[in-house]
Design the sequence.
């Protein structure tokens, strides 16, 4: 679509504009953004998660925050996650866990403080029997993220999951190197703009890599979260899982809130486990712009419904 090449860079630029983010924050969550961001405040997110859990859909909550450059700000994000976990306990949500980003926990400010803050959150989550997924960010963070994951496991913490990106050439080696931990692994295609020296650029090659990684992860006995909205992956993988008689307790499907909302419902109706990655928070604007950058055509849909940005 011709408009896409014009709109995509605009949304990408808006996603990084602090001025626009601040302006949007003062105006509050727009109607259009509500498609992808469940609420601005924690109580709304917990209510939304409770509704999804009641429909048999799992949730992983992501607190949208600005990137953090000081240890002090990292402490504030960690405190927010502890507050989230406490609310999940109070609301007794049966199937809601959390996803974190290490840049939000100050990995750029201090790796040792970042580790300590993450460890605290993971310990609190363990007390409620909840998993903490550590999202994978752009390639300069991969070694540090995997290193921090290993450290948590070596400290005896099991309730932590790691994300591997199919587009990176290094990922099969990373999966093999983690094998002895029997990790909970989320497989994704990869969301960042990476150079051809590090990452595949061809959509079909990425799909094939995704398929291979998912099956290799399951063959190693890892609990595997298959995170995609792509029917070109979901259909053949479901077939492959059936053929290998893989028990449904060993994997789940994960999707982003608001993208193909019918899909988790269909999967659950067919006896599969599906979990939605549900973002909430006052810093909703950059996340909303990134979603529009992925599919600029959505802008017409939203404007057509009279939903201003
Ligand atoms: C639960 C979850 C967690 C993730 N965590 C990470 C992470 O930690 N690190 C990371 O790098 N990436 C992460 N990602 C993002 C991932 O890497 C991909 O960028 C993203 O999932 C898009 O790839 P896809 O497999 O859905 O396929 P695509 O090829 O992007 O999409 C497949 C189909 O989905 C539908 N679709 C896609 N986008 C939209 C949209 N905006 N609106 C409506 N329909 C749409 C369309 O039908 C499209 O054909 C995560 C994704 C999910 C689902």
Sequence:
């Amino acid at each position: 679509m011709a408009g896409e090449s014009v709109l995509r860079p605009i949304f990408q630029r808006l996603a990084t504009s602090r001025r626009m983010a601040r302006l949007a924050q003062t105006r509050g969550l727009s109607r259009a953004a509500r498609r992808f961001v469940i609420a601005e405040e924690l109580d709304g997110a917990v209510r939304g998660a409770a509704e999804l859990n009641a429909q048999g859909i799992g949730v992983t909550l992501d607190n949208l925050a600005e990137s953090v450059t000081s240890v002090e700000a990292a402490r504030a994000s960690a405190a927010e996650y502890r507050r989230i976990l406490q609310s999940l306990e109070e609301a007794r949500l049966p199937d809601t866990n959390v996803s974190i980003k290490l840049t939000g926990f100050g990995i750029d400010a201090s790796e040792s403080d970042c580790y300590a803050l993450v460890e605290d959150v993971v310990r609190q989550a363990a007390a409620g029997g909840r998993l903490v997924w550590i999202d994978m960010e752009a390639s300069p963070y991969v070694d540090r993220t995997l290193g921090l994951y290993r450290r948590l496991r070596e400290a005896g913490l099991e309730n932590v999951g790691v994300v591997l990106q199919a587009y990176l050439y290094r990922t099969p080696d990373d999966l093999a190197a983690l094998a002895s931990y029997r990790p909970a692994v989320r497989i994704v295609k990869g969301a960042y703009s990476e150079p051809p020296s590090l990452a595949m650029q061809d959509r079909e090659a990425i799909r094939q890599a995704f398929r291979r990684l998912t099956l290799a992860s399951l063959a190693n006995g890892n609990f595997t979260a298959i995170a995609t909205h792509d029917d070109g992956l979901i259909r053949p993988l479901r077939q492959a899982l059936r053929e290998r008689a893989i028990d449904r307790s060993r994997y789940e499907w994960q999707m982003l809130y608001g993208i193909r909302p019918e899909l988790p419902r269909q999967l659950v109706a067919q006896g599969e486990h599906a979990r939605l990655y549900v973002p909430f928070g006052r810093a909703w604007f950059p996340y909303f712009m990134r979603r529009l950058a992925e599919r600029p055509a959505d802008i017409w849909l939203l404007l057509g419904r009279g939903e201003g940005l």
